[in-house]
Amino acid sequence: MQLNAYHVIGVIILMELLSILFFWMLAKYNSGNISLNSILKGIMERFFVTFALCLGYPQALTLFAALKIATRIKDDSSISNDYYLIGNLISISFALFYTELIKTHIL
Fold first, then answer.
1. Most buried pick, 17, 29, 33, 48, via CB within 10 A?
2. What totals of helices (H) and strands (E) does the chain contain, helices first?
3. Where exactly are the transmembrane stretches of this chain (predicted)?
4. From CA 18, how far away is CA 3, in angstroms rounded?
C-alpha cells in the first residue's frame, strides 16, 4: 500500500497524540506532572530532529544531545536521570520513525 503525504501526516499526528499519552503516564508513574509547555517542547524537539535528518544532517543529533545535557545541568529536580533518558530515547525514536516515513513516502 502506497502512502501519500496526507497519510504520513496523519500517522505523525497520531504518533504525537500517543506520545503525549505515554509521557503523561510516565510522568504519573514518576510522581511528576506534564504541562502543555513540556508537550510543546517535545513536539518542537522531534520536529528539529526530523527536519535535520530529512535534510541529511545526522550530526544534528550530537547538537541535540549537547543541548539536552546543557539544559539539565542546573536542574535540581527530584526526577531521576532514567526518566530523562527514557523520554529522550523515545522522542528521538519517534523523530527517526517520522524521518523514514517522510523520506519513503513524501520525498
1. 48
2. 4, 0
3. 6-26, 47-71, 83-102
4. 20
Q: Specify the pTM.
A: 0.68
**Degrees (nearest 5) of the Cα angle 19, 68, 78?**
80
Could you tell me the CA-to-CA distances from 38 to 35, 42, 70, 90 in Å, in that order?
5, 6, 17, 15
Backbone angles phi, psi at 80, to 5 degrees: -75, 160
Please answer whether residues 64 and 47 qualify as being in contact, where contact means their C-beta atoms are separated by less than 8 angstroms: no
Which residues form the domain of 24?
A: 5-105
What whole-number distance in Å separates Cα of residue 36 and Cα of residue 13?
A: 16
How do the pLDDT tens digits run along the chain, 107 residues long?
566 888 888 888 998 899 888 888 877 777 677 778 888 888 888 888 888 888 888 888 888 888 777 776 665 565 666 677 777 778 888 888 998 888 888 87
Residue 57 neighbours by CB distance under 10 Å? 12
| Amino acid residing at 32 | G
